[in-house]
Design brief:
The chain is mostly helical. The chain contains 34 helices and eight strands. The two termini are 27 Å apart. Helix 21 runs antiparallel to helix 30, helix 24 packs antiparallel against helix 28 and helix 25 runs antiparallel to helix 27.
Amino acid sequence: MHRHHVFPLSTVLLVAANLLIPAAILIFATGFFPYKPFLPGLARYENLEYGSPPNAPFDRLIFMVVDALRSDFVYADGSGFEFTQSLISNGVAIPFTAHATSPTITMPRIKAMTTGSTPSFLDAILSFDEADTSSTLASQDTWLAQMKAKDTGKLIMYGDDTWLKLFPGIFDRAEGTSSFFVSDFTEVDNNVTRHIDGELRNHDWNTMVLHYLGLDHIGHKAGPRSPNMVPKQREMDGIVRKIYEAMETEPHLQSTLLVFCGDHGMNDAGNHGASSPGETSAALVFVSPKLKAISKGLKAPVPFADDFQYYSVVEQSDLAPTLAALLGFPVPKNSLGSFILDFLPFWPQVHDQFQILMRNARQIHDIITATLGSSPTGGQLDEKLCLNPASTSERLICEWQKVSTAAQRAIESSNPDSSWTMDVSKWLLDAQNLMSSMASNYNMDRLMAGGATAAVASVVGISAIASAGIDPRSLGSFALITVLYGIMMFASSYVEEEQHFWYWSTSAWLFYLALKKTSKTPRSSLLVVFVGLGIMRLLRSWNQTGQKFAGEPDIVTMFLAMSPALLWGLVLASYGMVSWQLFDDLQGIPTTISGSIVAGLVTSALSFKLAFTNEDAPELVVGLAKTVVHMFDGPSLVTRARAVFLGIGLTTLYPVYLLATRPNKLSRTQAIRTLHHLYTLFALTQSRATNAPLYLLFQGLYQLLKVLHLDPTEVTTSVLLLQFASFFAAGGSNAISGVDLSSAYNGIADFDVFAVGVLTFLSNWAGPVWWTSAANMLLLQGRERDDAGERGAGGFAGHMALLTAFVALSLGFVMAACTALRTHLFIWTVFSPKYLYSMAWSLGQHLVVNVGLGGLLYWLGCE
C-alpha cells in the first residue's frame, strides 16, 4: 500500500506566491520599459526647394569624451583646464553646459549625443553588461554613420569599449578599454593617449573618437574633491593642448573641429545615474582656430555656480544637428536636437542660415508625424484658436503656420529677413520638448496586468501567513511597517531618502522589543536599549547616502579616511572576530590543523584586502599597512582573490561533511554556524575596507537579538528591518549611481556576465545576505528551545510567509506608484530606478537568498 505525501497548505500557498512574484515583475517591466521605435535608414538631403546645402566649415572631427566631466571641472576657478580656459578667453573655443537627461549613464548618453534622440531607460541596465549587443546602433542613423557615408576618410576610436558595442564594425581602427575596472586611474587613459601622436600625423581618417575614463574612476573612488582630481584635469587639458597645437601646425588638420565634452557629470559623492544638477551638467567645448571668426571670447575661468550651469545651456541631443551643419551631412533621422544658434555666423548669407534651421525643423516634423501617426502641422487653425491653443499639438500647429509663412516669404525673397530665426528656433525647442515628454510609450495593459498579478501574489502570501498558524495579534508592528513603506513609495523625496525609514523603524523596533521583554529579561532589555540603539546610531552615520545628503560628512569620511590607523585597527578587529569564530567552529579538527587552516585563510583574505585597497584607495594604505603590503607584494589581485575564494570553498567542505555524516542536533548547529562565519569572511572580501567594521556592529546586534529569545514573528520583523538597514548603511541607495562595482571583478580576469552579475549583487547586498544567514541561526535557536519541534517548523513557514507577503505587497505598491506617477517629472530619475531596485530585492534577495539559500540552510540545520 502506497502512502502519498501531502504538502501542507502553507507550503502550497508559499510556492504559488513566490511563482507569481517574478511573473508580476516580468509583465510589468515589459510594459514600463519598452524600446522606442526609430526611423530606419540614413537621412539624405531632401527638400531641395530650399536649394543646395550650404558649404560646411569643417571636414574632420575629433570627438573627445572625458567621462563624468562636470561643467565646473572645466570652467570654474581652481580647474586644472587652464589651457582650455585660455582658448575660451581667446575666442578659439566656444563653451556650453550640456544638459544630460536621466539616466546619466554612459551608454544612454552616448546614444543621445550620436543620434540626437532620447534613449530608453533600459539602456541604463544594459550598460552594466559588457557583453550585451542588443542595444547596438548599427542600424540607426547617427553622425558616425553619416561621416562613414561621406567616404572621405576612416573612422577611428580609442577608449571606452561602449563605443565598440554600440557601433560594431563602423570603426576602421580601434582599441577599447573596459569602463568597469574603476580602480584604475592611469593605465585606462594612457592606453588612449599613446595612440594620439601617430593618428594626428595620419591623413587617412575623417573622424577620431577618444573616450577617457580616469576622471570618472577618480570620482567613483574618492569623489569630486579627491586630491587626484585636479592632476587628472591637467592631464586631460594637456591632451586638448596637444590636439589644438596639431590643428594649428598640421596642414591636413586646419579644417578639423575638436568637440571636447563629458557624457554626464557627477554628484558630490562622485557617482552618477540620477538627476541632481551635478550629474546632469556636463561640459561641452567646441575648439578650432576657425572659431575666432565668429567668437570674441568669453571670460574664463568663472566663479563656481551651485547649479553647475555656465555660459549657454544646450541639450546633448543638440550635438547631432549642429555637427551635421558644421561637417556637411544631413541631420540624423531620429534626432530631437535643435541646431545651436551660436554657430549660425559661420554662414553670413541669411538664406544659408534659413536652410540649416528649416532642414532641422523638417527632420523633427518627420519624427512627430511618425510618432503620432499623422502630422500635427498638417492642419490649419484660425487666428482666434491660435490666441489660446488648447494643447501642445495645437500650439505647434499655430507656430508652424507662422514658420511656414516666413519660409515662403524667405524663398520668394532674394534677401530674406532674419527675424524668422527666433521663430524657427522656438518651434524647434517646443517640438523637442513635446517629443521628449512623449518618450515613454507605456503599455497600460501590461502595467495593469503586472500590478494585478502582484496583488494576487499579495493575497496568496497573506493566506500563507494565516495557514502557518501565526497569531494575528502579533502582526501589528509588521503590518504597520509594510503599510507605511507602501505609502512612502508615492513620494519622490521619501524614495530618494528611504534609508531614514529603515534606520528609524529599526531603532523604534529595538526599543519596542526592549520594553516588551522587560518583565522577562530586564537586564537584557536594558542592554538592548543602550547598546542596540547606540549601534543603530553608528550604522546611521557610517555612510551618507540618498540624494539630499550624498557627499556630506560621515564616519567613513570624517574618521576612517582621516585616520587610516583607526581604520586598519577596526579591519583587523573584524578579521580577528571571524578568526576566533572559525577556530571555535573547527573543534572537531586537531588544534594544529584547524589553527593552520584559519590562519592561512584569514591571512590570505587580509592580504587581499590590503592589496586591493592599495590599488583602490591608496591614500588609506599608509604606515604599517603600507609596509605589510610591500611584504606580501607579488601575486596579482585576481590570483589573491581566487586564493581566498578557493580557501573558503575548501573549508566549506568541513561543515558539509558534518551535515552529511552527523545527524545529531549539536553537529548540525555547529555546521550552520561555521557556514555563517565563512560567509562573513566572504562578505568582508566583497566589501570595501571602510565597510568591514560594519560586521562587528552586525555581530553585536545579532548577540543582542539572541539574548532576547525572540519568537519567529519577532525574528522575521527584526531581520527584515536589519536587511534594509544594513544595505543602506554600507552606502546603498535607490539611485543607479548607488551600484558599487569596485568588487565586481574579484577573481575574474575576463568579463563573464554571470560571474560579474553574482559578485556585483553579493557586493551590494552583502549585509542583507548576512542577515538571512543570521535569521536561520536565530530560528534554529528558537527551535532548540521548543521541545516538541512543531512550533519551530511552523515558525519557519511563518517566517517565509511573512517575508513573501512583504515582498509581494511592497512590489505592488511600487508598481502602483510607477503607474500612477508615470507622467511625473521624476519618473525616470526616482521611480524607475526604485522599480529596478525592487526587482533586485524581490528576485535576488528574496527568491534566491531568503527563500532559496535561507530555506536550504534551515532544512540542513533541522534533524
